[in-house]
Amino acid sequence: MSDDVTTQARLPALLRADWAAVTRASPNPMTFVFPHFLAVAAYRVSHALWRGGHVRLSRLAMVTSQVLTGAEISGAATIGPGLRLTHTNGIVVGSGVVAGADLTLYAGVLLGNQGPRNEGQPTLGDGVRVCSKASILGPVHIGDGAFIGAHALVTSDVPAGGKVRAAAAVPA
Q: Which CATH superfamily is domain 3-162 in?
């Protein structure tokens, strides 16, 4: 079976897992019209198109999602089931990012390469939570169940269950 057929067959199951992750956190019956689930659904469609070799349609789906929801998640990224976006504004996920199941991203998160030469993208394990305005850059590995605090800049590996936070502000 080709990759595009496999991805298309998995799309409903992935969307159900994403829906379950969203509704566990917010059991509002109108969740399906909220930007956070629309961005996840658009990513899943964009990824299926990318895997099927429809690169331009994949980019169109990504850009449309970015305009409607504020999240830019590349269809070339690989993200496991249970993706949850708490607030979509400013979320950017680069094309080489690989993430496991049950990933949670808050507003303003950046997952991408480091530097102008595209020097690799992050890999995130299962159950990782990345808080607002955190950036994970370059070819780093974030272990299962890791917690990345708000405003953290991560450029080195984080072990499973590890916690990373930004330095506290100091009064001037």
A: Hexapeptide repeat proteins (2.160.10.10)
| DSSP characters over the chain | --HHHHHHHHHHHHHHHHHHHHHHH---TTGGGSHHHHHHHHHHHHHHHHHTT-HHHHHHHHHHHHHHHS-EE-TTSEE-S--EES--TT-EE-TT-EE-SS-EE-TT-EEE--TTTT----EE-TT-EE-TT-EEESS-EE-TT-EE-TT-EE-S-B-TT-EE-PPPP---
Q: What's the whole-number mean pLDDT along residues 130-147?
A: 97
Domain spans in the chain, listed from the N-terminal domain onward: 3-162
Residue 114 exposed, middle or buried by CB count within 10 Å (0-12, 13-18, 19+)? middle
Whether residue 94 contacts residue 121, with contact meaning beta carbons closer than 8 Å, is answered with yes
**pLDDT tens-digit series, residues 75-96:** 999 999 999 998 889 999 999 9
